[in-house]
């Protein structure tokens, strides 16, 4: 397998994993905050910027980690 194809596959898989993680994170955390913490009351102003930062850090980290794992496994099989 060529290195460019392995790189493309790693980036695509990392992006898909990051997107899935972002959706799960937003649904879970906002749901838990709504049900158990803030409810129907007005939410504090710090919640949205904090959640946006956490979402970016989590999704970026998961995407990089998955891409790196896939890259290493595919390059390990490459001959020459």
Description of the structure:
It is a single chain. The chain has helices at 3-38, 47-76. The protein is mainly alpha-helical and 80 residues long. It has one domain (3-76). The longest helix has 36 residues, at 3-38.
Number of domains: 1
Beta strand count: 0
Helix content: over 70%
Helix-strand pattern, N to C?
HH
Could you report the average pLDDT, rounded to the nearest whole number?
92
Strand content: under 5%
What is the distance, rounded to the nearest whole angstrom, between the alpha carbons of the first and last residues? Answer: 10 Å
Please give the largest β-sheet. Answer: none
Shape: rod-shaped
Structural class of the helix and strand makeup? mainly alpha
Low-confidence stretches: none
SS element count, helices: 2
Topology:
Blueprint: H1 3-38, H2 47-76
Helix pairs in contact: 1-2
Q: In a few lines, what is going on in this structure?
A:
The protein has two helices and no strands.
